[in-house]
Design a protein that fits this description.
Blueprint (H helix, E strand, L loop, with lengths): L7 E3 L2 E3 L3 E3 L16 H9 L5 E3 L3 E2 L16 H16 L4 E6 L16 E2 L8 E4 L2 E4 L4 E2 L2 H20 L5 E4 L5 H6 L14 H4 L1 H11 L7 E5 L15 H12 L6 E5 L17 H5 L7 E4 L4 H9 L5 E4 L1 H5 L3 H7 L31
Parallel strand pairs: 3-4, 3-15, 4-6, 5-6, 6-11, 7-10, 11-12, 12-13, 13-14, 14-15
Antiparallel strand pairs: 1-2, 8-9
Helix pairs in contact: 1-2, 3-6
Length: 367
């Protein structure tokens, strides 16, 4: 695992190794204030051996909410809560960026005073989302006005300022997995006829307006972007003949922003791309030659495959998700060739310490 364990630079971020902790929604910031707490600080500090931690999706405004007990970064109390987390991570020798998130139509009226969530267009994703009372079907969202879109850009800029005030080493824009930016990218969820619909340029406009706004409040080499071009049959998104050209356009334009990294998700769900004629079965290898930023790959990697991709130059770092839930000391386990513990999926979103901070670290002497 020599390549996986070597240092790497992602923009302004100097990492001790190429093992990234992927963003993981864990629903531990309780209502009504959604403030990160001491339990969360302990959870992240336990995992500070990662070269970089990408925080769980962090909501930029009340309008962006879509899940119970997910943390925000719009209030001063939330900034102070996140400061406890970043201080704990830094004290343990780690680096952490804040993933900035707006769920768009992947939400429920439960989170918006009974009103419909917002989206590029009034198209129901026909999915089920988690509510405080359990899973519920989505509804038809309300299409955003141009003025409201400008407000979302301002929300992301405020979130960037707040993230830096909270002590984060940078931010990651969550433009992935069927959430708001992805809803603008995809033809199946964006039927607008104004400046935010139709052409590649228009459907990508919101992302680049947000990146320009963030670039005015923090250095661009501390900004990452996450995309998932091959998400299909999930969260109401479909891959079609326009998908690859759309994301090629996005990656080409990202090259002009001097970003810290591009975070790319590989297809990893069984049958995800079955019957899709225009699919990419390997995402990072397709974009490697046209992407000027370092690439972080994500999606079902085990340590051996991660090592192989880095050794072959297909990516610069690899993000692990579930492996970090059950293995807080994942880099140490990889270094020592130790077996990986398996997570308890029932505890992913239930709150509390169980299945969160109670996974043990490896006894290196015993190993």
């Amino acid at each position: 695992m020599s390549d996986l364990l070597t240092p790497v630079r992602l923009g302004a971020l100097e990492l001790a190794n190429r093992i990234v902790m992927a963003p993981l929604t864990r629903c531990r910031a309780p209502a009504p204030d959604y403030v990160p707490n001491e339990l969360m600080a302990r959870y992240y500090a336990q995992r500070a051996g990662a070269g970089l931690i990408v925080s769980e999706g962090t909501i930029v405004s009340p309008q962006g909410r879509g899940y119970p007990d997910t943390p925000g970064i719009w209030s001063q109390a939330q900034v102070e809560g996140w400061r406890r987390v970043t201080d704990a991570v830094h004290a343990a020798g780690g680096r952490i960026v804040c993933q900035l998130w707006h769920c768009g139509r992947l939400s429920l009226p439960d989170y918006h005073g009974g009103e419909a969530p917002v989206a590029p267009s009034a198209i129901d994703p026909r999915w089920k989302m988690l509510s405080p009372a359990g899973p519920k079907p989505t509804v038809t969202p309300r299409a955003l006005s141009g003025e409201e879109i400008a407000g979302i850009v301002a929300d992301f800029a405020r979130a960037g300022r707040n993230a830096m005030a909270a002590g984060f080493d940078g931010v990651e824009v969550h433009a992935s997995n069927g959430y708001l930016f992805h809803q603008f990218f995809a033809r199946c969820s964006n039927t607008r006829t104004d400046a935010y619909g139709g052409s590649h340029e228009n459907r990508a406009r919101l992302l680049f307006e947000v990146l320009d706004a963030l670039g005015r409040v923090l250095p661009s080499d501390r900004i990452g972007v996450r995309i998932n071009p091959m998400m299909n049959r999930y969260h109401g998104i479909a891959v079609d003949a326009d998908t690859v050209p759309m994301f090629e356009y996005i990656v080409d334009r990202l090259n002009g922003h001097g970003l810290a990294y591009l975070h790319l998700t590989e297809p990893f769900q069984p049958g995800q791309l079955d019957g899709v004629a225009d699919a990419l079965h390997e995402v990072a290898p397709h974009f490697r030659s046209r992407c000027k930023a370092p690439i972080v790959s994500n999606g079902g990697f085990d340590p051996a495959r991660a090592q192989d991709w880095i050794a072959r130059g297909l990516c610069d770092a690899v993000a692990f998700g579930r492996a970090f839930i059950a293995n807080p000391d994942l880099p140490s386990r990889i270094r020592h060739g130790a077996a990986l513990a398996q997570p308890d999926t029932k505890t992913f979103y239930q709150g509390g310490e169980k299945g969160y901070t109670d996974y043990p670290a490896l006894d290196v002497c015993a190993a």
